[in-house]
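dumping this here so i dont lose it again. seq + smiles for flavin-adenine dinucleotide
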Amino acid sequence: MTPTTATAHEIAPFRLFDLTVLRTRRLGPSVLRITLGGPGAEGFSGGGRDQSLSILLPRPGQREAVVPAGGGEAWHEKWRALPEGERAVTRSYAVRAQRLRADGSTEVDLDVVLHDAGGPGCRWALAASPGDRLAVLGPTAADNATVRFRPPADTDWVLIRADETALPAAAAALEWLPAGLPARVWLEIPRTEDRQALNTAAKARIRWLVRSEGAVCGVETVRAAELPGGTPYAWIAGEASGVRALHHHLVHERGFGHERVTSSAYWRRGLPEQQA
Ligand SMILES: Cc1cc2nc3c(=O)[nH]c(=O)nc-3n(C[C@H](O)[C@H](O)[C@H](O)COP(=O)(O)OP(=O)(O)OC[C@H]3O[C@@H](n4cnc5c(N)ncnc54)[C@H](O)[C@@H]3O)c2cc1C
C-alpha cells in the first residue's frame, strides 16, 4: 500500500486561477465533461484521487465573479468578508484529471452532473462553451488538503461507495490505487448509459447501481455483501444521508475503526451547496 503521510495532509496550498473552457463533451445522459486550460492554468497542480477545486461564479447581473485575489488559508476569510449578495457563488468539483500537453500547456477535466434540481453549478456547466473564462480556486500542490482519500499504510483492502457526483473522484482514486490491492466498489448512477470505462491496476470488483434499472442503492447493498478479511479503508462520498447511513453501518455494525473511514457529504437533498 502506498503510504500517505500526516505532513502531506497538512499542506493546504491553493490559489486563484483564471481558466478558459477549451471544450465540453457529454459522457452520458447525466454528466458533462468540461475541459479547462489556457495560459491561466500555469501552476495548476492536480494530484489525483478525490482532490477538488472550487469554481467561482458571478451572481445574476454580474459580468465577472467577485473574488479576493491570491490564495492560501486567508482566501476563504477574505471571501467571507465580502458582502454576501456580491461575492462569487462557489461550487465544488473533483479534479477528474490533469494532463500536461506536449507544448507544456495544462488541461484539467471536471465531470459535472446535470441534475434536475438545477443550481448555479449545473447551469454554468450546461451553458459553458469554448472560450468562456472561469475563476477557479485550485491546487498549487499535488497533495493539497482537499485530498481526503488517504488509505493508511497498513490497508489490506479498500471499500469505495460513490454516487454520480462522487464518481469522478472515485474514478481518479481507482486510477491511483496500487496494483493488486483488493477493492470493493459500488458506484451509483442515474441511467444505464452513465456507466464509464474505469482504469485501475487494483484488484477491483466494481458494481454499478443503476437507479433507472431499479437498483437498491441504500445501505442494504453493502450490508448484504461479504467483505474481504484484513484491515480495511473505506471512502464514501455522495448525497449526505446515504453517506451518513453507510458510515454508521461500517463503524457500528461492521466494526471499522472511525479512522479507517473517510466520509464526505458532496450534496444534500433540498439544499444548495453553501447550506449543505
Ligand atoms: C469535495 C466535493 C467534490 C465534488 N465533486 C463533484 C464532481 O466532481 N461532480 C459533480 O457533479 N458534483 C460534485 N460535487 C457535488 C456538487 O458540488 C453539488 O452537487 C452541488 O450542489 C452542485 O451545485 P449546483 O449549483 O448545481 O446545485 P446547488 O445550488 O448546490 O443545489 C440546488 C439544488 O440541487 C440539489 N442538488 C445538488 N446536487 C444534486 C445532484 N447531484 N442530484 C440531485 N440534486 C442535486 C440540491 O439539493 C438543491 O436542492 C462535489 C462536492 C464536494 C463537496
